[in-house]
Amino acid sequence: ATDIRNLQLDKNHITCIEEGAFRALRTLEVLTLNNNNISSIPVSSFNHMPKLRTFRLHSNSLRCDCHLSWLSPWLRQRPTLGLYTQCSSPPTLRGLNLAELQKNEFTCSGQSDSAFVQPCSLASGSCPPMCSCSNNIVDCRGKGLTAIPAHLPEAMTEIRLEQNGIKSVPPGAFTSYKKLRRIDLSNNQISEIAPDVFQGLRALNSLVLYGNKITDLPRGLFEGLSSLELLLLNANKIHCIRATAFQDLENLALLSLYDNKIQTLAKGTFSPLHSIQTLHLAQNPFVCDCNLKWLADYLRSNPIETSGARCASPRRLANKRIGQIKSKKFRCSAKEQYHIPGTEDTRLNNECNSKPVCPAKCRCEANVVDCSNLRLTKFPQHLPVSTTELRLNNNDISVLEATGVFKTLSQLKKINLSNNKISEIEDGVFEGAGSVVELHLTANHLDSVRGTMFRGMGGLRMLMLRNNRISCIHNGSFTGLTSVRLLSLYDNQLHTIMPGAFDTLPNLSTLNLLANPFNCDCRLAWLGAWLRSRRIVTGNPRCQSPSFLREIPLQDVAAPDFRCDDVLEESSCVARPQCPSECTCTETVVRCSNKHLQAMPKGLPRNVTELYLDGNQFSMVPRELSTFKHLQLVAIGANPLYCDCHLRWLSDWVKSGYKEPGIARCAGPMGMEGKLLLTTPETKFECLGPVETSVQAKCSPCVSGPCQNHGVCQSDPVELYTCVCAPGFTGKYCETPVDVCASNPCTNGGTCISDEQTRRFSCSCLVGFHGSFCEVDVDDCEDHGCENGATCVDGVGNYTCFCPPFYIGLLCEEEEDVCSPGRNPCQQHSTCSSTATGPRCVCAPGFVGGDCSVNYDECVDQDCQNGAVCVDQVDGYTCTCPQGYSGELCEVPPPPPSPCERARCQNSAPCVDRGGTALCQCLPGFEGVRCEKLVSVNFVNRDSYLQLSDLKNWPQANITLQVSTAEDNGILLYNGDNKPMAVELHEGHVRVSYDPGSQPGHTIYSAETVNDGRFHTVELVTFDRMVNLSVDGGAPTTLDSLGGVPTLSGEAPLYVGGMPEKMSYSSLSLFQPLNSSSFHGCIRNLYINHELQDFTQTTMKPGVVPGCQPCRELFCLHGVCQPDGAQGPLCHCQPDWGGSHCDQSIGGGLVGGDVAPATASYRCECEEGWRATLCNQQGELTAPAVPEGPAKPCSVLLCQHGHCQLTEGGATYCLCDTGYTGDTCDTVESACRGEAVRDFHRVPRGHANCQTTRPFSWVECRGGCQGGGAACCAPLRVRRRRYTFECDDGSSFTQDVEKAVECGCKECV
């Protein structure tokens, strides 16, 4: 069918398009391919459709590489086609509009990209012509293949490709064949394998790769192959195996690395192989030095190596089996030769497990990495794994970010971060630094300390926090640092320390608290006693306030002198949560919505993943938001964003990772109002006015002032610019001082001495320091006096003795008393006394044993009753009672349940106990013994309705409901799609409509009106081909549908009181008589086939409230009653009506005796003896007076354009005809007028719904006219315009539309 004009293929599973797929469709006008999985499209696929006017390609998986570059200019030449076509990959282009990309942005990185450009074939694949296929096995052995065939059968479980000439395995070669269990690529020429070639093959259990030229196994090659049992890599040229190469192969039983070039293996290489039974390592040139000792230990513990792996060097171990050599023989010595003639250098065998030798600009010697004095602002990456000491002192680091840099540094012992600008340490920065024993953070900007900062440093022994801004220490500051022995808080801002702050440091022996402004009030009393009892080296910290205690050591202050004279303010020295005060934080989610913020809140946690800033007053967003590298979602909607060039970065940033869900819109400048931040091209973010310096600098580099140190910038035709330096400086930017001492490179107070001839310097160090920069503290421990095996720790011009257990004193010269803290063996608050034979414990009541550690079990003789559980306590026990029982021994049984506890009233109904019988007092609208059913509801809103979805397809139906309303029109019931049946109010009567689709519709009306505010019973019975309608038990009205009455459709829901808007439009298109207004009023007791319907089981749209009882007392003449108002039931009036009963006209309508026509297209003038809107009810409400009895109420009230009604209290009122108002219905409701409307114009076109592409304005003529019915309110002047329509099937057309622009009274037509 080459004459197709409309082809819609959206929302399918299309993954590729064959070349020439649309070549024959030259008449095609509409083509939709959106919402598929298309990744690439052949060149010029759409060039043969000259009439194409609608084209959609968005929401696909387009890979924007060099093969798709043709599509960008094609879309730019056709700006109305393919809107929102965006790239899905590569990551750098994800989310960008394809039409906005330039040709040089579509790149291919080489051979690996060719795998993504494969011609389409059948989705299930097919057997290659040169191979044989049977039983899901594809056999391509010895076929001379140089590449792996494409489009193989997806159901294959085994592929045999051995003995061919294949040289490489490209990306994705096997990833789509999820059922593969065996792959054989042996005896080829493979030297290159893509890392993801086996990705997703969870069923693969055999992989054969022997006899190739593989030199390296890419990182992650075997990732996720948890079912693999056999892996043959023998007879290759592999020289290095990564330590994580086999980490997912938990079920691997046989691994062969026989006959390769492997000289060493990283420790733990085979640890993940929990099921390994056979290992082949022979015929590899192993260097048996200290790095391979682990392998000998592993093979002795796991005798699974059966090929006889042997050492190749050193000479003393050559040709000896690795598993039989003693561990002490594996050593590293400078005296031995480990190089093996004829093999690659040993470094090649370690390169896949090592990092770069030394970070840029840093100095590395032995295992010390020195990155000091480099003005670094963050940690260097890729540190050598053998690093034992890291020097980062004297830099400009302000925040320590959790990058995981220490997780690979298992040998690191010391970290020096002194003399930086560190003010924040993210939680988890030191994860993996468990081997570190010294951490120096001296001379930084820290103002608080929390234990999570140092998480992962369980082995830390020395923590230096000198010369910071720490103002308080709380009892969570040092959590987890159980090994710390020396803690220095010298020269901070400590005023107080919370009790228990050092309880998490059980091994603390030296605590430096000097040079702090301690306020020795009652809050610090605990510290004086603690210092006196601990006997740790402190240097005697001194009080600074109050004045009478100034310079007195804390431990010398008497307890009564730690006093608080005034009322204490609430202490601020508590663990500070990492959450801004204006926001709430849950783990890594921060919510700052609707807080009237105008700037980014301070103190956002660095690990935030979701940030909610919507509903604030942001006009600009600071660029620092992009520095939160863990941020995945940011909500900035409902902010007055000013989208000029300063927010261009934000537009690019949210598009790069879809971080903003497409809600945020611009508020300015002009032309950007309402545009989405996510989809608006970056070129639209422009600035008007003076050009910024950074932009001018691109044209005139000197504008940005690149020259430093007062250098003068001059334009240069070759170098763009040159800097003329001031005296004393040199370099391209005048950044280098001629005096090498200008930057003061000497640390620790050293004096720099410049040598002008050599332009070098030397440092004259203070006593106690030496080294090129005076960075090395002289080891004062070389001649120390520590006793009893104490450990000496060097200080600045001094040293500290770390005492072994049970020794104290500055030199650890005193032995602790056996009952002193730390040695006291007595537990549970028992008393310890020293004796000649050692400590003796006097136990507290309830405890026994030599150390009083055993709690005597008093439950042995317990008296708990009624199945209670005995719980042993100190010197006693307690009984845990079963539910309901009480008493010390659980001897008191539970009281019997009350009647109301058994009643279980539902729907919030209160229960009343009446003489031992429970009575549920149902709330309005609910019935039943337990108030379990909702049987009456009030429809308050204009678009409210109920939806019953569990209807059965009965052969006949009997529907009964009670209705109370004052409205003329509204939907009561609606059911069906193609053949709908509707029960509705029409001008106060009940109308039943049925449209069979292929026949003319049928309609019947009730003779009675039901819009008098009272409840009326409406009964609808369908049987065979008849419909009977009865109101209040009156004579039924019958409809013979001729074509058979439809049963209630179980496929379509039954709507009560209204219907969805989309359903209203479709119903109007089927038959015009159905009005689309929702019902206003009350509906109760809906029976379907004699079964009372429970409205709690329905889908209830907002605007439907339970109960109608309050509205029984309030009649709303021109409105509807809402039962749940603040002051009780309340009338909601129609337009132009007011008053508590909606009976007072406020619309300025006609007055006097003027007559206006009804708003409907006709009005019935009833003959004598008939009444009601359709003149179909016999009798008059105002019967003549009977002389024998009192006069009837309606006999004294004359309603000119309506009829008299009685309220429940017996009062009379006039119920006016449509278009009239007033106490006696003598006033025209409103004058003819034109009401302004601005909207889309909608028309049906076949089965499609169409509307104009843009809204426009017109007027609707409403109201009445004088003239006794001869004049009607109608358009006096109209305007005709041609508009373009778009339809939901993708088509469009143009058509003239005629709309009124002026209304007035004229002769009725």
TrEMBL record:
- Which CDD domains does its entry note? EGF_CA (cd00054), LamG (cd00110)
* PANTHER family linked: SLIT HOMOLOG (PTHR45836), SLIT HOMOLOG 1 PROTEIN (PTHR45836:SF3)
Q: Which residues form the CTCK domain?
A: 1232-1309
Q: Name one GO biological process term.
A: negative chemotaxis
Query: Which UniProt keywords are present, listed alphabetically?
Result: Developmental protein, Differentiation, Disulfide bond, EGF-like domain, Glycoprotein, Leucine-rich repeat, Repeat, Secreted, Signal
Output this protein's name. Answer: Slit homolog 1b (Drosophila)
As for subcellular location, the record says: Secreted
An annotated GO cellular component: extracellular space
Start and end residues of each EGF-like domain: 700-735, 737-775, 777-813, 815-853, 855-891, 896-932, 1190-1226
From the record, give the cysteines joined by S-S bonds: C725-C734, C746-C763, C765-C774, C803-C812, C843-C852, C881-C890, C922-C931, C1194-C1204, C1216-C1225
The GO molecular function terms of this record are: calcium ion binding; heparin binding; Roundabout binding
Decide whether keyword Signal is in the record. yes
Q: Which domain of life is it from?
A: Eukaryota
- Give one Pfam family, short name only: Laminin_G_1
- Ranges for domain Laminin G: 935-1108
